[in-house]
Amino acid sequence: MPVMYPYIQWQELNRQQTRIISHEAKFHEIAPYLDTGLDPVSGQPVLIDLECGVCGHHLDVPRRVSPNDYPDAPLEPLCVLPCGHMMGTHCLDHWIRRADEAWQAPTCPLCRFKLRYTKCKCQMRFREFSPLLPREQQVPLTIPEGGRVDAYCGPCRDRRSETKLREWMDEHLPANAVHGSITRVQETRLQACIGGLARSARTWHRENAPRW
Ligand SMILES: [Zn+2]
Ligand SMILES: [Zn+2]
Ligand SMILES: [Zn+2]
């Protein structure tokens, strides 16, 4: 449903040649404007006015791209799925609970993208978009943007890395290494192990950008 603006506001928007995005369905179509409110190519202001495809509520976007303050209209938090589709968080939550109750695997209501990790089968955490945070701190690249979804969820990935680390330590450290009684060889292995831990901590920090 197109949004009606007061005539004065329309004039002002036209004067600034403001682009109003109101029908885009996928996140990558609005992502370039969220942090600045400007079109990076033309430099023109962009306003984003989206509605939840299920209930019609306005979706909450950062103030800098929001055309109105909607004093009376209810706002629904915007939620992004790995397939790039967006909708209201409450409606998606409701949709997923209904699928759960029917013992069905939850999918994107718009494209049927499966909202379960392929290997561990855990349910995907969906991303509620906070208008107060920059995009890169909260929404990973969506699939249309070249993003990928891991086969395991975050906690399962962590458990797997911990198991791998334990196996690595069992292999490289003697079980009877006691402080003060380790040999030169054992000490070298211990140092290597500490090095391995430091490397995995660095990798963890590097990869700690949001992931699906
Ligand atoms: Zn909704
Ligand atoms: Zn989808
Ligand atoms: Zn999992």
Automatic annotation (TrEMBL):
InterPro entries (UniProt xref): Znf_C3HC4_RING-type, Znf_RING, Znf_RING/FYVE/PHD
Domain RING-type as annotated: residue spans: 52-112
Name this polypeptide is given: RING/U-box
Zinc is among the record's keywords: yes
Pfam families: zf-C3HC4 (PF00097)
Alphabetized UniProt keyword annotations: Metal-binding, Zinc, Zinc-finger
Metal-binding in keyword set: yes
